[in-house]
Amino acid sequence: MSRSSGPLTISKSINFWESIWAEQGTKVPWARFSPEPLLVEYADQTKIRKALDIGCGHGIDASYLCSIGVQVDAIDISPTAIELARKVDKNTNYILNDFINHEFTNKYDFIYDRGYLGSCANKESCVKKVKLLLEENGKWLTLIGRKDGNVSGPSRYTLTETLSWVEQDFNIIEVTASVTLNNSNSEKISLWKTLLEKKK
Questions:
Q1: What Cα–Cα distance (Å) separates residue 52 from each residue in 38, 48, 83, 198?
Q2: Which pLDDT tens digit goes with each residue over 125-180?
Q3: What's this model's pTM, rounded to 2 decimal places?
Q4: Has domain 10-198 been given CATH number 3.20.20.70?
Q5: I need a labelling partner for 175 at 20 to 30 A (CA). Which of 11, 42, 106, 166 fits?
Q6: Measuring CA to CA, which residue among 35, 29, 31, 102 is closest to residue 67?
Q7: Structural domain boundaries of the chain?
Q8: What is the DSSP secondary-structure string of 106-125?
Q9: Closest CA to 118 of 65, 58, 193, 28
């Protein structure tokens, strides 16, 4: 999704993402058929009780978290994506709605997104909403497309841009230049692995 001078309306955002999922299904360029290794690495080292997956797509990462005993809510704006997720994972609470405008009833000790923040037009609202939903000392792992030579990826940003969105509301625990793969086409994706802790 290209950057925008202002936030998309909800209806335009639904139409944009749903048109891609409806046409391509799990063949969308960013799809994975196994959990994101950067998420697995974090979960192996940290006890997570209750998690939220933002922009969960067809649910591969949310399903993984659920499989290791985490209570998981997962949200996406695409009806097709949520339908695909629900077909293969009956235990995760999949929510069909816009993240920023959805009224959540839970708080979380861990929030995760793989590309949502980078593609979100209203980054300030996204960051404030994540902070609101995290418990005290809650962690946010956000994977953001990184500008890096010839390595491709989603909407891509510099480290300065990335930190400027979050540093007012979050402590920076780790920012690492990382590369992952999309299983659908084995394309290398260049990311900022950004681990944050909610400021008091």
A1: 16, 11, 18, 15
A2: 999 999 999 999 999 999 999 987 555 555 789 999 999 999 999 999 999 999 88
A3: 0.89
A4: no
A5: 106
A6: 35
A7: 10-198
A8: --EEEEEEESHHHH-S-HHH
A9: 193
